[in-house]
């Protein structure tokens, strides 16, 4: 099958030769035709040497490479890719795990499928497309999921309405594309949580913090714990299972606090160790002197684009400085950034600056990242979006 040909400017082929999956619009010299958004195009260097096949899209990232070899991109091509991703999760012990039935099945570039996210919550697949090309093959993806999971799959929910570029003329709408789920309750390491994929953030729950929540549990015994930006309370009920003597959950969203309370009640009904507050995080941190000896800082992405990177770093610095100033002596801070444009080094330097500002003696106990079902393509370091540190504050 022939695809529209895209030729790069001289010298702009080096990143693709290193298997980085993005072609920026400024690297394109010429296109032999007018591809529609979502079309597969063939990318060549200035000397007419083939480099890759990818989805074309209007914007800064003009082509997302799906293959570095010349193949036919058909239904079988996508089935092979999704089955490879599935097998990787089988090898990780996530499929048919009696204690965990929530995991990421497809992680975009990490699984060589740029623009596609699929999270599994028990018998429901929540699909989210970030490119027009992936959205145009949504029916194919649904059929592949049905083939792989068979009768185990009860529902597929597509949540791409807010993630497809707004200029694209595909009019995505959130909704079930197969079946309908009635349970809405999933398991993670034996703990229950309610998932709201219809109105909640991302696909309904932050499955990328699974391993870090399990680590927090080990630090929680006898501690007074503050879970900032708690969303649906994941860190909170792990802290309770770990033996925390008190857990407070804080989020500016009333709906998040409702979900947190429901999730705590699912796991620890009537437990008076927990309370939750719908207030601004920065205001809450202003006056908590010595109340807590374990604080979790897991804010939403402060920066989604490089043009606001400096403001984001200042936000992380201010947030962490407040925690350093307020935490009890001998306290522990779990601090995170989920901003892809904030590098691991930049985040660490920002936390270092916050520590220096506080004048406290701080040591790094653990360096954290995303779990294995959120793999990082070694040729696409931007995929390592989740950064975290566990800090001991004297």
UniProtKB/TrEMBL annotation:
PUA domain span: 4-87
Gene Ontology cellular component annotations, sorted alphabetically: cytoplasm
SMART domains: PUA (SM00359)
An example Gene Ontology biological process: rRNA processing
Protein name: Class I SAM-dependent rRNA methyltransferase
Similarity section: Belongs to the methyltransferase superfamily. RlmI family.
Major localisation: cytoplasm
GO molecular function: methyltransferase activity; RNA binding
Keywords, in A-Z order: Cytoplasm, Methyltransferase, RNA-binding, rRNA processing, S-adenosyl-L-methionine, Transferase
PROSITE patterns hit by this protein: PUA
Locations listed in the record: Cytoplasm
């Amino acid at each position: 099958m022939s695809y529209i040909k895209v030729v790069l400017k001289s010298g702009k082929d080096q990143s693709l030769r290193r298997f980085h999956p993005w072609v920026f619009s400024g690297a394109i010299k010429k296109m032999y035709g007018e591809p529609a958004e979502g079309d597969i195009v063939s990318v060549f260097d200035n000397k007419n040497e083939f480099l890759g096949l990818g989805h074309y899209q209007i914007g800064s990232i003009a082509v997302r490479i799906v293959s570095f070899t010349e193949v036919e991109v058909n239904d079988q091509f996508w089935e092979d890719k999704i089955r490879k991703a599935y097998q990787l999760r089988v090898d990780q012990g996530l499929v048919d795990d009696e204690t965990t039935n929530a995991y990421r099945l497809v992680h975009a570039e990490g699984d060589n499928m740029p623009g596609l996210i699929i999270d599994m919550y028990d018998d429901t697949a929540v699909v989210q497309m970030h490119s027009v090309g992936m959205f145009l093959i949504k029916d194919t993806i649904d059929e592949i999921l049905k083939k792989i999971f068979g009768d185990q799959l009860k529902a597929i929910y597509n949540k791409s309405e807010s993630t497809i570029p707004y200029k694209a003329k595909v009019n995505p709408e959130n909704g079930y594309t197969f079946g309908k789920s009635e349970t809405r309750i999933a398991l993670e390491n034996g703990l229950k949580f309610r998932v709201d994929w219809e109105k909640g953030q991302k696909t309904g729950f932050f499955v990328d913090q699974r391993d870090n929540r399990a680590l927090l549990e080990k630090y929680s015994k006898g501690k007074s714990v503050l879970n900032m930006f708690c969303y649906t309370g994941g860190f909170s009920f792990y802290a309770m299972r770990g033996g925390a003597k008190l857990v407070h959950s804080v989020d500016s969203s009333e709906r998040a606090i409702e979900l947190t309370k429901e999730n705590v009640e699912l796991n620890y009904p009537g437990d008076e160790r927990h309370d939750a507050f719908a207030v601004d995080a920065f205001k809450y941190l202003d006056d908590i002197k010595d109340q807590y000896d374990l604080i979790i800082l897991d804010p939403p992405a402060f920066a989604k684009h490089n043009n606001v990177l400096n403001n984001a770093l200042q936000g992380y610095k201010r947030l962490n400085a407040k925690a350093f100033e307020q935490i009890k002596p001998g306290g522990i801070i779990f601090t995170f950034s989920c901003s892809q444009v904030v590098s691991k080094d930049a985040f660490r330097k920002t936390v270092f600056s916050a520590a220096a500002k506080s004048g406290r003696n701080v040591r790094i106990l653990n360096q954290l990242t995303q779990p294995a079902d959120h793999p990082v393509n070694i040729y696409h370091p931007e995929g390592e979006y989740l950064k975290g540190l566990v800090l001991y504050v004297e």
